[in-house]
Design brief:
The chain is mostly helical and 206 residues long. The protein is built from eight helices and two strands, in the order αααααααββα. The termini are far apart. It comes from Acetobacter senegalensis.
Length: 206
């Protein structure tokens, strides 16, 4: 039985040496391109995984702390983050040391479990009498909508929210014709006690 012999493909017989060399180079080039592409993809994924996540801005963190502190001081479950950020920026701009004081007051709040704003206010003034003015600035901002002697928010100020079912913000005829002839709703008397010591009464210019 005759031994089997390797048969060269027919198309090779009809190819010139230059064509065969070019074909081999093309096959190698395609392989190199494929390997290079796979390597680049792996390197890209590795670089993305190793790339550190962007750090959270300190201003955003401080504004979030201010909002959390404000929730406790106002005894509320929700407050507007946008208004909180605006108030915080104005308060810190007016009195730069408020930035550190608000952070310290936030730390004090987190160290103990305060059931109410009154408890936090009493503990804060005992810890540092300067916290009294800090609390005043925060409460003035939320309830009057004023910080740095500028109006930050008007209609959404909490002083209007408390009495919105009885007293309207200053404007024209929001209750319709003769709305004042209707009996106003009953408002329960406040039962809370002040958490801070009395302050000197200051008459503001009008």
């Amino acid at each position: 039985m005759a031994a089997e012999r390797y048969c060269v493909p027919v198309d090779v017989h009809h190819s010139s040496p230059n064509s065969m060399r070019i074909n081999r180079m093309l096959r190698m080039s395609r392989r190199d391109v494929l390997l290079a592409g796979m390597g680049a993809a792996v390197a890209s994924v590795t670089a993305q995984a190793a790339e550190p996540q962007p750090a959270v801005s300190s201003d955003v963190t401080e504004a979030a702390q201010f909002l959390t502190l404000s929730l406790r001081l106002t005894d509320r479950e929700t407050l507007s983050p946008a208004i909180g950020s605006a108030l915080y920026a104005r308060i810190v701009q007016a009195v730069p040391e408020r930035k550190a004081q608000i952070s310290q007051l936030y730390t004090l709040m987190r160290q103990s479990h305060f059931e109410s704003a009154q408890e936090l206010a009493i503990a804060a003034e005992k810890a540092d009498p300067a916290f009294k003015d800090v609390i005043h600035d925060i409460m003035t901002g939320w309830y009057r909508g004023v910080a740095d002697q500028k109006v930050v928010v008007y209609r959404s100020a909490l002083m209007f929210d408390i009495t919105k079912d009885a007293v309207y913000p200053k404007t024209y005829a929001t209750g319709g014709p003769f709305y004042w002839t209707s009996k106003p709703p009953e408002v329960p008397l406040p039962t809370g006690a002040p958490g801070l010591s009395p302050s000197k009464f200051v008459v503001e210019p009008t």
